[in-house]
Write a structure and sequence with these properties.
The chain is α/β, with parallel strands linked by helices and 449 residues long. The protein contains 17 helices and 10 strands. The strands form 2 sheets. The chain has a 5-stranded mixed sheet with strand order 1-10-9-7-8. Strands 3-2-4-5-6 form a 5-stranded parallel sheet, sandwiched between helices. Helix 14 links the parallel strand 9 and strand 10. Helix 1 packs across helix 15 and helix 16 packs across helix 17.
């Protein structure tokens, strides 16, 4: 039984019970299509059974690589973009203590990131920082030719060769890539890098439970065994539960699709914990890339409250009523603080004396839910007990499974991303890549006109 719960008390007033029941039936039909693997994109459904197919041998292979990294490195640079790094970063930052943000601990290495954008200042500073540090690299790319990570890896590999010598680079680079083909696969064979496989039937944004996510998470010092166990318990529940009323993924997919049909075009994922900042980013990619097709799809956005109540709060409360909110609630923080009374109550906070800071945060959440609901924003709540590997494994798999159901309900292929290629083709042409000469002429004529 999973630890995750959904509360719909702040959304029920926005939908009729009859419409919701009909939409739940659609969700169950989509769930059956997903499990039967008869829908669009069915050649990319390897993630469904992934939690129970991961073997102890695979986990041990990852742990062995991590032991090598820990033996000689202070830092591990994870090179990837999109699904190649967001899932791992979401878990690592959700589990990190404050001290982990600044220095590597004795049990792990500090994880740094590269190749997730093209900013010259960032990569220049990273290379300068690593000049005097012992580091390893985990480069993650199916093809090895995606521009952002390929550039970053070329720069990092040059630094590694200069610092340690080409013959020693193979002990400091770990490639996660295709099993048979691609530029990175070829390079890994040439340099004899240890290699981990991205399964052919698992797309990038669904890959956090492969070596793509598991190696960096393990290197950061967290239990990938518990993470996988959490995902497995959620998979068992969502796959076996045929009563859509009790299937968490069906309930979530049904509500968001019904509200979308009723004019709610933007879903705002809300967290009251800054530790979940990159989980929000992972979720935005998962749903945006899966559903935003053929002129359809809920636009995924996010806010971190209460911080953003002092910036985006006005729009959330009084802006155009095209929003729905999904609030992630962590029931128990890792640590808490009791507020005390002061002899002089200049800040007017003595009324909070004896209360825990988590209690203040929870009441801020409740007050905001009431206000936003009164302001005609339907709000779902997804609750987890605390931020642990097991609970995060459950949450990640829940969102993946619900995404597959929701995409099928929307009538799109949730497992492709044809629109992503458009900017790449334009960029290649503008930079003068061979074979794109005609495209460049078309672009220049377009701007001339």
């Amino acid at each position: 039984m999973s630890n995750l719960k959904i509360s719909d008390r702040f959304v029920k007033r926005f939908v009729s019970e009859l419409d919701f029941q009909k939409t739940l039936e659609e969700a169950e039909t989509a769930r059956k299509t997903l499990l039967a693997k008869t829908g669009k994109g069915n050649d990319f459904l390897g993630w469904i059974d992934l939690p129970k197919k991961i073997t102890n041998e695979e986990l041990q292979s990852i742990r062995s690589a991590v032991e090598t990294i820990h033996s000689h490195s202070q830092y591990l640079v994870v090179v990837g973009i999109g699904g190649s790094y967001l899932g791992a970063r979401a878990v690592i930052e959700a589990l990190s203590s404050d001290s982990d943000f600044f220095e590597p601990s004795k049990k792990s290495v500090k994880i740094l990131y590269a190749g997730h954008h093209l900013d010259a200042d960032y990569h220049s500073k990273l290379l300068a920082f690593l000049e005097t540090k012992d580091f390893s690299v985990n480069v993650i790319s199916k093809s090895g030719t995606t521009t952002e990570p390929a550039i970053a890896f070329r720069l990092l590999l040059s630094l590694l060769e200069r610092k340690y010598g080409r013959e020693n680079v193979k002990n400091r680079v770990f490639a996660t890539t295709d099993s048979k083909k691609g530029a990175l696969k070829k390079l890994a064979e040439e340099y004899q890098f240890p290699t981990f496989i991205i399964p052919d039937d698992v797309g990038g944004r669904f890959s956090v439970l492969t070596a793509v996510g598991l190696l960096p998470i393990a290197a950061a010092g967290y239990s990938i065994h518990k993470l996988v166990d959490g995902a497995k318990s959620m998979a068992d529940e969502l796959i076996q539960e045929s009563n859509s009323q009790n299937n968490l993924a069906c309930v979530y997919a049904a509500y968001r699709n019904l509200l979308y049909r009723n004019g709610k075009k933007i879903e705002v994922l809300v967290s009251y914990s800054p530790a979940l900042g990159f989980l929000l980013e992972w979720w935005k990619q998962l749903y945006g890339e899966s559903e935003g097709k053929t002129g359809k799809g809920i636009f995924p956005a996010s806010v971190q409250l209460t911080t953003d109540l002092h910036s985006m709060g006005q729009y959330l409360q009084d802006g155009e009523r095209i929003l729905l909110e999904t609030v992630l609630k962590i029931q128990s923080p890792k640590q808490d603080i009791y507020l005390t009374e002061k002899s002089e109550d200049g800040d007017g906070l003595n009324y909070l004396a004896g209360k825990k800071l988590s209690e203040v945060n929870e009441n801020a959440m409740l007050g905001t839910l009431i206000a936003h609901t009164d302001g005609n924003v339907p709000c779902l709540q997804i609750e987890i007990p605390n931020l642990s590997e097991e609970n995060l494994g459950q949450l990640l798999y829940f969102f993946e499974f619900a995404c597959g159901i929701s995409g099928y309900m929307l009538g799109v292929n949730p497992f492709d991303q044809p629109g992503v290629e458009d900017y790449k083709n334009n960029m290649f042409a503008l930079l003068g890549k061979k074979g794109y000469e005609t495209k460049k002429e078309e672009i220049l004529k377009h701007f001339e006109s």
